[in-house]
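Hey,

The postdoc asked me to send both predictions to you directly instead of through the lab channel. I've kept everything plain text so nothing gets mangled by the mail client. Protein one:
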Amino acid sequence: MTTTGEGAEAPTTPSDLDRSRAAGGLDAPAGPPVADLGYSEAAAELERIIAELDRGVIDVDVLEVHLCRAVEIVEELDRRIRGARERVSAILPRLESAGRGEAEAHGAATV
């Protein structure tokens, strides 16, 4: 490990990073598991990570962790979107069927 300007030790090797993550150090992923976040919460966290990366103010020692967290969020949001599309696709035929049945009922009542 190397010492930062603030006197803290920064992990410099993969094993240092693993020990730091296990100890809950600065480079440990923040927040609850992605699957436990609501869609809006996950999207907001992803936006914060992207903004940090865009500003270039992220510490190189935590860059990998933030990128991994961002990938986890993107994958989870994509999984949720695909699931929602599948559920909507399954529901639409029922809605169309109900709409046809209602139209037929109104057509018979006006005759």
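Protein two:
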Amino acid sequence: MTGMVEPLRVACIGMGWWSDVLADAMKRSDKLKIVACYTRSAEKRDKFAAKYRCRPAEKPRKAATATAAVPAMTYVIVSLLIGLQFYARSR
């Protein structure tokens, strides 16, 4: 075994300017890989999926569980990030 660790697979939920900031940072890291995304707007969802080479999902739960390889904890992390987004916008 080479000691290589697989990147944490992440589902991004909610597309906006902040999601691109986070996705750009994840893209630069070898520790995270965006595998799915969701937002209510199909146009934004498809644009994000194309830009970050991930799978667009029609429902948030499907984004978080897009593949069996996405750990359940990822959904909690994404939810926390969404909460931080709302908090930052409210200040």
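Summary for protein two, as requested: Residues 9 and 68 are 10 Å apart (CA to CA).

Thanks,
C.
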